[in-house]
Structure prediction request, 571 residues.
Amino acid sequence: MPGRERSWLRRIVLPHHEGSMPLWCVFPVIFAALYGTHWGLLNLPYFWDEAGYYIPAAWDFLRTGSLIPLTTISNAHPPLPSVYLALWWRLGGFTPQVTREAMLMVASFGLLGVWRLAMRLNGSAKVAAWTMVLTALYPVWFVQSTLAHADLMAAAATIWALTYALPSEEDASKPRMALTAPTAAVWFSVAVLAKETALATPLALAAFEAAAALRTREGAVRREHWQRAGWNAVCVAPLAAWYGYHFAKTGFVFGNPEFLRYNATATLTPVRFLAALGHRVLHLTAHMNLFVPVLLMAAAMMLDPVRESVREPGHDGYDSLHSGMDLRAQWRIYAVLAANAVAFSLLGGALLTRYLLAMYPLVLLVAVSTFHRRTKWWQAMAALSAVAFVLGIFVDPPYGFAPEDNLSYARMVRVQQAAAQELQAKYPGAVVLTAWPATDELTRPELGYVQKPFAVDRVEDFSLAQMDRAAEDPGGYSVALVFSTKLEPHGLPFGLDSVVDSAGMEERYFGLHHDLSAAVVAERLHGTVVWARRDGLEWAAIVHFDRAVDARVDEPEGKGRSAERQTGSGL
Prediction:
């Protein structure tokens, strides 16, 4: 192979720009920074959907080699996360710390992709650095960096796919053009084998390229657009193969019927779609202080591009505009953002922000690139955004949100871990009335909360209706573990939810309910609060009932949990 071709191939495999560090030097810096900032989270027991699906599925694969979960109901999620986690557990042991470190590797690789994407589309190392830092600090990304959800793996692969799928000035090289689309296809295939919903991005790009092909009259350009559309759609094939395998093993294509109903068929109503779309627009523009860079970007757009005088030895000076993003790439980014907002308004019973995890780096890249192009004070604007994000990690917003959107999830885990330890110490062998995810935490010792499983009586939540139902049959439980299943901040009288919530839409479509306090639960069930703890918005309490009951062992490995509760957390 000629030396020029070898040099070009090295740039495809380990690409870097002149004057910037090569990627293999950037990665350990990213990982070290993430490891240090997440140190206090590495030993936390498993949380929410981790405990409900992803950890049991990977644990089953580690023990049995089955790609279909055995101890939890299959949701037809692709198996790549299970294979990845099982590999790490085989090497380092089945512990939460090994799991968290494995996910930090994925997060670091995703941030490396953010760096590479920004360098490719903007060309400024400072813009790339700020985009990467803001992505790492954005509360949703920061928290997901250690959680064993498939969304992080899908987001990292999607970012790397976009690095090759979005056009830039580097595409002027014909050999490079011949390999970028196939490389993007490989990464998109990895993304959809991590999480099936990652398909929204490559299909959006395929549709964009197809529309561009139909608009142009130039034959060579039309062929290129059709080729790129085809390569972007290649990832459908491995996902279809997985669903075929899943159907052959289980008789279901898209998971159990209750999962499909909750996350797809029950969401396809016009009013519900419009309400969900309103949430998704807010998630992409305002949630967890994202409004700070978005509003700063809107303000910067009102300014003329920055011009700087450049002087070169032996030449006259000239004015140079700050570098910006290729408009071709920008339009594709906007198409991808819109497609994901629509897709996740139609799919997913729960409006979790981690479904949009791959979109936040794109929003931040557009914002930082605009800062850089439009104002000399652009780094101050980026720094202000970073401060807002750091506050968002620790300070809860004045509207309803999921615990996994900031460090509220860690407070929830610690409070419930303390409650489980209290139950073990004071009420071993008790039958515990509680709701998901505590039902799994108390029945599955491998999740890190208890050493021996408890028997549980399950309720959906701690609302008035559920507690009245539990009061009708008080003979099955001797204690109750009550906790906050929904976060209800007492903040501003006008919150983001008010924008899209009217006539009870939140309750009708998105499962909003109001938990009773521990004292009210104890009163209605005729018990006594014997232990309670609160940390911020998160709280838990143990209610004891002074009556004799027979201890029993609940169904093993959490199989007794209802299908709705198992799938109710979303895709």
Notes: The mean pLDDT is 85. Residues 309 and 319 are 5 Å apart (CA to CA).
